[in-house]
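User: I'll paste a sequence; please echo it back and then give the predicted structure.

Assistant: Echoing your sequence first, then the prediction.
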Amino acid sequence: MINEIYEETKEHMTKSIEALKKDYTRLRTGKVQTNILDNITIDYYGTQTPLSQVATILAPDATTINITPWEKHLVGDIEKAISAANIGVNPNNNGEAVQLFFPPMTKEQRQESVKGAKTMTDNAKVAIRNIRKSANDKIKKLLKDKDITEDESKKAQDEIQKITDSFVAKADETFKSKENEIMTI
């Protein structure tokens, strides 16, 4: 019974770390990421379709993204969708593909990205602590229902705290590596 609570707690905390890493993908780092276009859709035969499903998206270098549609008539639609998405660059259309040229990040932009990453990390830590509270509440309920003893309850809460501490440390490690990635020129 208690082991199930431990496993469930670890599973939920792991999901919090995965969500944090997914959130980090929205941040701009020194190298431009193609997933900056993930939320952009175009009208493809009457259906709003993600850009990645109608074109090849490549980042040949640290500041450029090339978008080559599978059907040439989509170039204009892709260009309009990117302009409307307001991602910080103007699309360049050469008739066959769309290029995005991102200027290198300034020190201030890097610091802003680090601040964003720190906020995301703090939110993940709050989520982890909320999971800890939920697990401790389950332990207290078992104690109240007399399914476990006072000693077992104390030991279980200590173990949940150890699990929590390890996941908070993982969140901090994840932040440190992201901070290094952002600040590296």
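Residues 47 and 143 are 54 Å apart (CA to CA). The longest helix spans residues 107-144.
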